[in-house]
């Protein structure tokens, strides 16, 4: 068994790729992994370390074929706010607007209900959704890439993450390791001050266009509550911006207004959203969908993106897409 280095010492990108290769290949003990992950989280990961760790995970994933214009919309999780599933709803809205979404996600590790938990509560068979992912993505424009199906090396890591019970670098690696190889993404992270560091990691890995976002209160998505730190990553470079809900003519609302719960609670709220229920949850979804449509190149203006997202909901297209997805994933 290999001994992991002290996480107090920074690793360069190549060293990080090697060390996380050991972790993913089971070449070190669970106790060593837990110690290393906690130490690294406490002193904060660097851009090099995140990029190197993501390269190790990418090298071990099981890929799928996807349309060239497919995007992903996800958050790193671990923000502690336990909100309703915004990125899951955004995925449906954006896909129903005509942009293929290869949604990469997992069960909850540090929240009450992850994307997989809520989709399952809505009636989507997770096993069948995985088996039919390429088909539903090609024919419906949406799929769910359940992390456990595409990252077998994560099998021994998930219990360690659950035992730690808080955010680790694995939250950051997942969005950078989409099995569909998407080149456009909207990624929410839980630390606004960390946006440029994470954007630096994404720039090291390369991307056509990715938007990294974080609400000022530490929300891992575009927040209605106040301002948002945003990095626009193109190729191997990025630029920083500040954005708030007024960008899409939406009212501000506190995070408590979209507080979620267990999977059944979140699924009920998502169903109500698709059925036309107004309020902060709808507004949060429209805000994030506008950013996603901008990243996808489907629109060139935030407000046009918000209007397109609202139409996707109001026309019933997003709700119909969910019904068709559940029916096809059998």
Short synopsis of the structure:
The protein is an alpha/beta fold and 330 residues long. It contains 15 helices and seven strands.
How can the largest sheet be summarized?
5 strands, mixed
**CATH third-tier fold name of the domain at 71-146 and 181-329:** Pyrimidine Nucleoside Phosphorylase, Chain A, domain 2
Helical residue percent? 40-55%
Report the principal-axis shape.
globular
Q: Give the termini distance in whole angstroms.
A: 42 Å
Please give the order of strands in the largest beta sheet: 1-4-5-6-7
Low-pLDDT residue intervals, each spanning 5 or more residues: none
Helix-strand sequence: HHHEHEHHHEHHHEHEEEHHHH
The chain-level mean pLDDT equals 94
Integer-rounded radius of gyration: 18 Å
- Estimate the strand proportion: 5-15%
Given the structure, what is the number of helices? Answer: 15
How many runs of DSSP E, i.e. beta strands? 7
Class of secondary structure makeup: alpha/beta
Q: What is the highest CATH level, the class of the domain at 71-146 and 181-329?
A: Alpha Beta
Per CATH, the superfamily of the domain at 71-146 and 181-329 is: Nucleoside phosphorylase/phosphoribosyltransferase catalytic domain
Binding site for 5-phospho-alpha-D-ribose 1-diphosphate: 75, 78-79, 83, 85-88, 103-111, 115
Keywords: Amino-acid biosynthesis, Aromatic amino acid biosynthesis, Glycosyltransferase, Magnesium, Metal-binding, Transferase, Tryptophan biosynthesis
Pfam families: Glycos_trans_3N, Glycos_transf_3
Binding site for Mg(2+) 2: 220-221
């Amino acid at each position: 068994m290999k001994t992991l280095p002290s996480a107090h010492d920074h690793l360069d990108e190549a060293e990080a790729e090697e060390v996380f290769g050991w972790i993913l290949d089971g070449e070190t003990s669970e106790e060593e992994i837990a110690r290393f992950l906690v130490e690294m989280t406490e002193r904060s990961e660097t851009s090099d370390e995140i990029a190197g760790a993501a390269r190790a995970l990418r090298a071990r994933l099981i890929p799928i074929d996807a349309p060239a214009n497919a995007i992903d919309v996800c958050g790193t999780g671990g923000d502690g706010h336990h909100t309703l599933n915004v990125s899951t709803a955004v995925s449906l809205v954006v896909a129903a607007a005509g942009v293929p979404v290869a949604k990469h996600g997992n069960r909850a590790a540090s929240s009450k209900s992850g994307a997989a938990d809520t989709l399952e509560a809505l009636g989507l068979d997770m096993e069948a959704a995985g088996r039919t992912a390429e088909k539903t993505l090609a024919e419906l424009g949406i799929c769910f890439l359940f992390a456990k199906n595409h990252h077998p090396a994560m099998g021994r890591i998930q219990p360690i993450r659950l035992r730690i019970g808080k955010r680790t670098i694995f939250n950051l690696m997942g969005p950078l390791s989409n099995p569909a190889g998407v080149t456009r993404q909207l990624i929410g992270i839980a630390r606004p001050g960390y946006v440029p560091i994470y954007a630096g990691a994404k720039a090291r890995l390369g991307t056509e266009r990715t938007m990294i976002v974080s609400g000022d209160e530490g929300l891992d998505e575009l927040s209605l509550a106040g301002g948002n730190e945003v990095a626009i990553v193109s190729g191997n470079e990025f630029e920083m911006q500040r954005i708030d809900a007024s960008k899409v003519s939406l009212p501000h609302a506190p995070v408590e207004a979209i507080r979620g719960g267990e999977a059944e609670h979140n699924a009920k709220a998502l169903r109500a959203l698709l059925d036309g229920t107004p309020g902060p949850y709808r507004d949060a979804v429209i805000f994030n969908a506008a950013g996603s449509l901008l990243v996808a190149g489907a629109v060139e203006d935030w407000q046009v993106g918000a209007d397109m997202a609202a139409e996707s909901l109001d026309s019933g297209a997003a709700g119909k897409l969910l019904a068709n997805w559940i029916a096809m994933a059998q």
